[in-house]
Design brief:
single chain; alpha/beta; six-stranded mixed beta barrel; 6 strands
Length: about 130
């Protein structure tokens, strides 16, 4: 029993709570992100808004870079995980921009923008 609890702990920690952020989800074509990490559209990666990233003088050293967030779609009742690799310059504060493959997992019926997606994780305080 203890072993099964431990195996679910990472997902529980990454599952956004009621107090997590809520915003729109869109997708983009990743490349070399503001974190200095090169990613592609087949990876589960995310770009956070400028205020959420809060990049310093060298965004490559942002402690959020490479950390995980949990993404919850209340419409489909599905949970997913993504790695923070970039800054979304056009996103509102609580919006997220994800790779196209992750977008299709999170919002399979989405047309490029889906409202009301919950997300959070320890690195972003949610």
């Amino acid at each position: 029993m203890f072993r099964s609890l431990l195996s679910t702990l990472p997902l529980l920690l990454l599952t956004p709570s009621v107090n997590a952020y809520t915003g729109d989800i869109t997708y983009y074509t990743p490349g070399l992100g503001s974190c200095g990490i090169t990613s592609n559209s087949n990876q589960d990666v995310v770009a956070l808004s400028i205020p959420m990233m809060a990049n310093g003088p060298n965004p490559n050293k942002n402690p959020k870079c490479g950390t995980k967030i949990g993404i919850w779609n209340p419409h489909t009742k599905t949970k997913h995980e993504a790695t923070i690799v970039d800054t979304c310059w056009a996103c509102k504060r609580e919006d997220i921009d994800v790779s196209e493959s992750l977008f299709k997992k999170v919002a399979p019926n989405g047309d490029g923008r889906v409202h009301g997606i919950n997300w959070g994780g320890p690195a972003v305080g949610g």
